[in-house]
Fold these 3 entries.
Entry 1:
Amino acid sequence: MTIKGINVNYIDYGFKDGQPIVLLHGWGQNIQMMKGIGDQFSDNRIIILDLPGFGNSEEPKDVWTVDDYVSMLHELLEKLSASNPIIIGHSFGGKIALLYATKYEVKKLVCLASPYKKNIVKNSLKTKVLKTAKKVPVLNKLEGFAKKHIGSTDYKNSSEMMRKIMVEHVNYDISNQLNKIKCPTLLIWGTMDQAVNINDAYELEKLISNCGLVVYEGCTHYAYLERFDQTVRVLRSFIGDDK
């Protein structure tokens, strides 16, 4: 689908008349990183997209801010007639989800290790996430999955455009906007997350009025995958009978 002048790749499956659940992947990833969760909730309507610049979606033609990604998502969902969605976002996708919920109607929000304030990129994202991926059993079971789907577009190896977009992302602090979020919100975080510190999770929980935090001891930035079965149980409890 063409949004803001670029082709955005997405999948739309499950029970088409059900509650829309939108899943947003992290930086340098794609649809496949969120499909495992989506498949567990296919009795709802599941929408997963490759964020522009990743997977099979085109790269933005100019420097997009996080707000531009939010605008793209809103236009996509309007064209798909997917109103009042439940949004589940990991990392960069979670930041988009947070900002989306400050602007538009969201039924429920789930953020998996989502940054929301200025962060300093000290090391190559690819190096960091690949090291983390080696510890994630779900990923180890899939031959070549980690190298193919994680960190495929880090700062060092990405295009000049995506580098500029990454700088926009890591320097954009949305803390002062989060009090606009009114929908029930769930945070899932690992105590060993080196990309977005667990202390940020405790702070984020306080910034959102109707918010709860689930902490996974000993887990990393990919806590939602490291304890995949637990994540599914937690999400089922949170989402409930919203169909």
Entry 2:
Amino acid sequence: MFGIADYGAFVAAIVVFLLIPGPGNLALVTSTGKGGMRGGLAATLGLIAGDQVLMWLAVAGVAALLAAYPAAFSAVQWLGAAYLAWLGFKMLVAKPGDAPILNIRPRQYFQQAMVITLLNPKAIVFYMAFFPLFVDPARHKGLVTFGAMAATIAVLTFAYGLAVTLLTHFLAERMRANPAIGRALEKIAGIFLIGFGIKLAISK
């Protein structure tokens, strides 16, 4: 289909990739908890934008460049780890009444989620190594094939992001009466972000 080897397996792989706990999922949950539906949807669009950038960079040959120069990938990995740890630290030290780590304005949620995606080595590795496995060299149709893959990823990510946003918003509405719960969840999110940063830094 469109030069994609085993389209069904490709869709399944994307779904599994979305379900794996990571910074992107945490960005969705945190954005929705802070900014409601608008924040969650803006973060979803940010994740989609980041995914599209990574995919088309891989198409343009960036994957080959990073493979030839491991130091380049290592630099991206450390940059992403430091960024996530910095966000987590800000969440941990935030005090009641402080400005939120993720601003309520949807534009900033979009930027936050996109940057997290672009600096997430897990996503970079997926597009560098896993994504090319689904390109059928015999039936490849150039931009048509890549466009179909990009559209599939965007649609699946939007559907997943919408589901996570709705669920998080539903739960958040029932916790607004107790601000202490929200502060505790922010601290927990901070710990997870620092943990993601450390894990990315030490991963090979």
Entry 3:
Amino acid sequence: MKGWIFKIFIFPLLYFISIWPFWLLHAFSSFFYVIVFYFVGYRKTVVIQNLKNSFPEKTDAEIKKITKQFYKHFCDVIFETLKLYTISQESLKKRIVFTDDAIKTMNSFFDKGQSIVGVIGHVGNWEWGAISHQVYFKQLITGVYHPLSNKSFDAFMLKLRGRFGGNIVSMTALYKELLTLRQKNIPTTIGLIADQTAPPESAYWLTFLNQDTPVFVGTEKLAKKFNYPVVYLPIKKIKRGHYQMDAIVITENPKDMPDGKITELHTRELEKNIQEQPFSWLWSHRRWKHKKPANI
């Protein structure tokens, strides 16, 4: 889509939607759910198959219930993400809350100027989860992203993610940015979403949700290279439009960990996060499109 179309038509529309009160946003989300689930059927086959493979013990009725819950939640996340365009820090802080233990854990690193690697998955509202760091903590967050093919929409998402002062960089520019920050003695939280599908040849393979699964090792490599502690931050949906985050320390000394252990540990925390609220993960993602190579 051409950039001028975005500027003249799309951006104003997205801004208009973002100023709606939450009750109206969620009302439109419910309407959107009916369209997406019952008429469009967006990736419904993928979602159902992923759920069946991940939870073989569940009945068809249970899978159907989770599927509907997922689509309702997925539509909520879309509209709630648009709300980031105009939401205030105070309003966001009321809707995504860090537990007292999580704040204590994070500040135990930040108070001594320690950089860390913070890991989340596509669980709950991951966009809110990522941006909430800037709302709760003074330490700089360096959020890592993969540029979108549509440059106009990519610019829009960067604007949302950096509204409250985050340092958003692409994966290709990350190492250079981290070296620069370390040279300037600026501590940072490296923000990663670590549940995308990894290329099978370079991935770390493990059993995840009852399936052979390739996992990116980037989190572990970063942590070991800089010897930064790794913290997994689970996101739980409390009720519609409200989420809670915790903080689980994976390791404080990455270089002392055997190869693969950090990857396995943060993936296991993600698995627990999903199992607690199965509907809240991004099941429409083709997570298991690769088969494990025979030589691995």
